[in-house]
Design goal:
Elements (H helix, E strand, L loop, with lengths): L5 E4 L2 E4 L22 E10 L16 E9 L3 E5 L12 E3 L2 E3 L27 E4 L44 E3 L6 E3 L64 E7 L6 E3 L3 E3 L6 E6 L3 E4 L2
Antiparallel strand pairs: 1-2, 2-3, 3-4, 3-11, 4-8, 5-6, 5-15, 6-7, 9-10, 11-14, 12-15, 13-14
Length: about 290
């Protein structure tokens, strides 16, 4: 294997023989075949859209993926921000080869699984770590055959959703915090489940921290549920057992690298800050676009 010789120029790594990136396979393996190119190391956070809640469980929070990437200067990288699910699982968010899986609709697998038995299917890319958890199980109350039992909470990036117990619904799983912007913000909480108010459910299930929607305690005059929070990838709260759905929250992609490096060029109008995190440029995408490092 050839020896790599690097010189540092203006904070960039110049590989005079062979650069460490990019052609990557679908499995994230690296094939080095670039000669004499500059690279920059960037941090990223990719959060997918949250899943919708339905009458049988809270929506799962969007998949949460964080890590480091060595990007080639001058190469345009694609950013896709997943929308929250509406009557469906959330949509994936993507940064180059990094994929956050959309949160699951209630009972469905996703970045975090929806309440009612949904499992996590989030994976970790090369150089990063993906987070997701399972949704809580459904209780078996006296009115189970009518769908009036306690519904499980959706899973969050930091914790699993709570199980429903008899006719009391489970809370959504808490999300996971990131300080990539300079402040600790929690993302990808699960939506709360559903309690059968007139059948023994005593409280309205809460959504997980990180934008999870509140569950319902709605039968015959109770309190309705709420959707997940946009920009945080929260799962929607469980809708009432009489029908209906809530929407999951949209996701986000955040990229940060030292401010000693040149400003990147972008499409999609991300917000850009050089003050929120000292010594870093921080690009926050709430819609899809591209970024090219200079």
């Amino acid at each position: 294997m050839p020896t790599l010789n690097r010189n540092t120029q203006g904070g960039k790594s110049l590989a005079t023989t062979l650069a460490p990136r990019t052609n990557r396979t679908g499995t994230g393996q690296v094939h080095s075949n670039w000669v004499g190119v500059s690279t920059v190391t960037v941090e990223y956070l990719v959060v997918a859209g949250g899943g919708a809640g339905s009458g049988y469980g809270g929506g799962g929070g969007g998949g949460f993926v964080t890590g480091l990437m060595t990007a080639v200067v001058g190469t345009q990288l694609t950013v896709t921000v997943g929308g929250g699910g509406s009557g469906a699982s959330g949509n994936n968010s993507v940064f180059d080869f990094v994929v956050g899986n959309g949160g699951g609709l209630s009972g469905t697998a996703g970045g975090s699984g929806g309440g009612g038995g949904g499992t996590t299917n989030q994976t970790s890319p090369a150089g990063g770590t993906g987070y997701g958890n399972n949704g809580g199980a459904t209780g078996t109350g006296a009115n189970y055959n009518l769908g009036h039992d306690g519904a499980g909470g959706g899973g969050g990036a930091g914790a699993a959703g709570s199980n429903g117990v008899a006719e009391q619904g489970g809370n959504g799983g808490n999300g996971r915090a990131s300080s990539i912007t300079g402040s600790a913000i929690t993302y990808a909480g699960g939506g709360g489940g559903h309690s059968h108010k007139n059948g023994g459910g005593t409280s309205q299930p809460s959504g997980g921290t990180g934008g999870g929607g509140t569950g319902s305690n709605y039968n015959y005059g109770g309190t309705p549920s709420t959707g997940g929070t946009n920009g945080l990838g929260g799962g929607g709260g469980c809708a009432s057992d009489s029908g209906g759905v809530t929407t999951g929250g949209s996701g986000v992609v955040i990229i940060a690298y030292p401010s000693s490096e040149s400003a990147a060029t972008t499409t999609g109008s991300p917000s850009v800050s050089t003050v929120s995190r000292a010594g870093y440029r921080v690009y926050t995408f709430t819609g899809s676009g591209t970024i090219t490092f200079q």
